[in-house]
Write a structure and sequence with these properties.
Layout lengths: L1 H15 L4 H12 L7 H27 L2 H24 L6 H4 L3 H13 L2 H15 L5 H31 L4 H26 L1
Helix pairs in contact: 1-8, 2-3, 2-6, 2-8, 3-6, 3-7, 3-8, 4-9
Length: 202
């Protein structure tokens, strides 16, 4: 059972740690909000979405999606358009004097966190294509122990990411460093979108 937990933990860490649109948003809200608690709506919503995706993948949705090229193509196409837009939005965001404008209110955090989680083809492919298929080697209770391990990593990571953003926001009062991070993040998001489009075409 310990081996199953470790498998889930390390697999989830490998998938969730790389910089992406979901991580960028959580980090930004941690940095922009006046208090850490104000960034929790984004953290909780992103974690709930990951929990939903992982549960569906382990529950067998991965087999259905991967077996249907049409569904897979539609999901990736919609997601790629979303990533291209998110890259542009991240590139053009200007923290600093406009910092308060980047600190989303409760409702907008919920909507935005859900969109960057559920419309992100990279996240969907990770959960359905990697976690879902990896869970097939386990049966019964072990499969859900594996899923729970992956889900736990997601919750802990997003909480830590928002906290790191909060500390970064205190250090970077002018917002200049955040502008650099946003530019780098935008390039990574665009690169992921381009790779997905290339794979879709080929």
């Amino acid at each position: 059972m310990i081996a199953v937990v470790l498998h889930g933990v390390f697999l989830a860490m490998g998938l969730i740690l790389p910089l992406g649109v979901q991580n960028v948003f959580i980090f930004q809200q941690g940095a922009y909000q006046r208090r850490f608690l104000y960034a929790l709506p984004a953290v909780i919503m992103a974690s709930i979405c990951d929990t939903l995706l992982i549960s569906l993948a382990v529950g067998g949705v991965s087999v259905v999606v991967l077996a249907s090229p049409v569904i897979k193509t539609i999901l990736i196409s919609i997601g790629c358009l979303f990533l291209l837009y998110m890259g542009w939005a991240t590139w053009t965001s200007k923290p600093g004097k406009e910092k308060d404008g980047q600190a989303f209110p409760f409702k907008r955090q919920i909507i935005f966190a859900a969109s960057v989680s559920l419309l992100n083809p990279h996240a969907i492919l990770d959960t359905i294509g990697v976690i879902g298929t990896s869970s097939l080697q386990y049966g019964g209770g072990e499969r859900w122990v594996f899923a729970s391990s992956c889900i736990s990593v997601s919750w802990i990571w997003f909480l830590g990411l928002a906290a790191a953003g909060r500390m970064f926001g205190r250090i970077d009062a002018s917002g200049r460093l955040m502008i650099v991070i946003n530019k780098i993040s935008a390039c990574i998001i665009w690169a992921v979108a381009i790779l997905l489009i290339k794979n879709l075409i080929t």
